[in-house]
Design brief:
11 helices; alpha/beta; 28% helix; binds zinc ion; oxidoreductase; seven-stranded mixed sheet; Quinone Oxidoreductase, Chain A, domain 1; oxidoreductase activity; 18 strands; globular
């Protein structure tokens, strides 16, 4: 089969590899779609802080995928061939402090399909072998193509769960990429009273408006402060930062109300410069969100996708074949990322 194999910075090859066979406790999934993640871009360009140094060369990339069970390995008795599944692409040790608390995303041996830390092949191939425990059957009403959004939407869902209740809250979302737009939809489903979304890209602001944001603002040419003041005089209750930008993060600190909450759900490339003085005088609560807890966030995310709480038509901007991964996927996102939301790759 043809797969997208990562060898190093700017060296991804679409090449022939053997079709995997499911080992004991594993299933073979025929991949319907695999989404391109911002972290894949860091890996592609070889950014160390983006995790490239943690990637295993010679491994198939891709961690946002869904598909259909093609074959089951020894000992798998509760998942039938032909079942459509979304995959939580995470493996963990099961015995460390975080694993004992059901927080596998913080496992000290955390590994991801797509080659993060261990040579676990990912979803940018027609077939991938994954553990049974990573597979979540799709609820009725959710297609196997749209289900490729489950992983990034689980990131958004987890970020919202890490914050305080959104019922009746005013919320500012910094950044309208896939995660920011996912957060927007999740807080609206959670009963937010008003939502303000800030992004530099006109296309992404338009998507936020389509998805029901109360106000959308260009953080440079627009007046974010005025937009917040119009809706909520003391500042918003909750800010979600998806940008990994110190400028944006400090805008969040300036615009959250006293004793409000900021949730950081961004992959930082460098150390942040945070306005600690201002955060301190307003007793702001800064929290962090790391991917998701599969057992909690995947079923909730899949139910929300099936129920239309995440608008897949707006979120999925492009479908491309595997052979075009580098030119129409990774390079396109590097140079024209503001014109796309989620690009899905069809590896079949
Ligand atoms: Zn990702
Ligand atoms: Zn562990």
């Amino acid at each position: 089969m043809k797969a997208a194999v990562w060898y190093g910075a700017k060296d991804i090859r679409i090449e022939e590899i053997a079709t995997p066979e499911p080992g004991p406790g594993e299933v073979l999934v025929a991949v319907s779609r695999n989404g391109i993640c911002g972290s894949d871009l860091h890996t592609y360009v070889g950014s160390d802080t983006g995790g490239a140094s943690m990637h295993v060369p010679g491994v198939v990339l891709g961690h946002e995928f869904a598909g259909t069970v093609r074959e089951v390995g020894e000992g798998v008795t509760d998942l039938a061939v032909g079942t459509a599944v979304a995959v939580a692409p995470m493996e963990w040790c099961g015995s460390c402090y975080s694993c004992h608390h059901a927080w596998p995303q913080m496992c000290r041996k955390l590994a991801l399909y797509g080659g993060y830390r261990l040579p676990l092949h990912g979803g940018l191939a027609p077939f991938v072998a994954v553990s049974r425990r990573s597979c979540y059957p799709l609820p009725a009403g959710l297609g196997v193509i749209e289900a490729a959004l489950a992983e990034p939407m689980a990131v958004a869902m987890h970020a919202v769960r890490r914050g305080p209740s959104t019922l009746g809250a005013t919320v500012l979302v910094l950044g309208a990429g896939p995660i920011g737009l996912g957060v927007l939809q999740a807080v609206r489903a959670g009963g937010a009273q008003a939502t303000i979304v800030s992004d530099l890209s006109p296309a992404r602001r338009a998507a936020a408006a389509t998805l029901g944001a109360t106000a959308v603002v260009d953080p440079v040419s627009g007046d974010l402060r005025a937009a917040v003041r119009d809706l909520t005089r003391p500042g918003v209750d909750i800010v979600f930062d998806t940008t990994a930008s110190s400028v944006a993060f400090n805008q969040g600190i300036a615009l959250v109300r006293p004793r409000g909450t900021i949730v950081s759900v961004a992959g930082w490339q460098e150390q942040a410069r945070v306005d600690m003085g201002r955060a301190m005088v307003n007793e702001i609560d800064i929290r962090y969100s790391m991917t998701y807890e599969p057992e909690t966030d995947f079923p909730a995310t899949l139910a929300m996708l099936a129920g239309g709480g995440f608008d897949t038509a707006t979120m999925i901007s492009d479908h491309i074949p595997l052979e075009r991964l580098v030119d129409d996927g990774l390079e396109e996102l590097l140079h024209h990322g503001d014109q796309h939301i989620k690009i899905l790759v069809d590896p079949s």
